[in-house]
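One thing: mind reviewing this one?
=====
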Amino acid sequence: MKKTIALTLAVLLIALCAAYALAESSNPMVMTEDGKVDIFQSTAYPAEGKTYKFAFIQNTGAHPYPQALVRFAQDECDKSGVELTVADAQMDPQKQVDLIKSFITQGYDAILNEPVDITSCLPAYQAAKEAGVVIIECAIPSDGATFELVNATVYGDAFEEGQKVAEGMMKFLPDGGNIVILEGALATPAQIGRTGGFLDIIKDKPEYVVLDQQTTDWMRDKAVIVMEDFLVKYPQIDFVYGHDDVITSGAFQAIEAAGREGILSGFVGASADGVQLIKEGKATLAVDQPPEYEARLSVQLAIRILNGETVEKVYTDKLGIVDTTNMDEFVPSY
């Protein structure tokens, strides 16, 4: 009897493992344990006899992350034989809506969109739905009724990113400390999530005190100004949380100019410049949000949907941590 039960359990285990492997392999792209992109199906092609025309709308072309998204999306489109047009919304919600509607009118098959904010694209997405144009949100998800109109989205969970920064901070500041937060543009999903996740981890830990938080609109120059103000107002700052590496770089420009030492920091976006901050001792840790995964998979999903395939609606990045323990082995993707 015991042997029969054991044999039955073994068969079930093998079946479950096989099913899990099949589920894993059906995902066009997965992340390896070290946070690198592992492209299971490296290229998706238009259906036989079809040609596709895609548009990629950045929320801003003035930031390294959207620039990296475009570079990887262009490369994936080149591999797939898909025509790609790139446009810049310049952080203007109305401009983004107008661009989407323009691409719909021009007969584009799919629009890969990096939203300026979480709800403003609703009228443009409604127009896309009526015209049969595929909408893939890349790097940033919308919300509510706007999100309901999206065919698929690929992004890093901003709340989880904020949590990981807080957890990393506590490793380097186990006894607590005074914190300032330099945020991205207000009301953007990344700003909301990255602050919310960070605060969620420390909410029951009174030894960690958030002295202040201010927006920088994702701009280095504004981050310098905000940090200069913080340094004047607060004689003891132990940790700077920058919502990305550009912001953190600006913060440390102000910190060095003021001659302040011993301030640790964490941020999201392990770019080459960001990792260099860690190597130079100007930053402590970074959460790796991979633009290659987001951009390549966005292109692949659009092709598959147009080919009539069924895909999941939500794909999230597997987030890694880069700090002084692994900075020499980590290879930035942008």
About this structure: The radius of gyration is 22 Å.
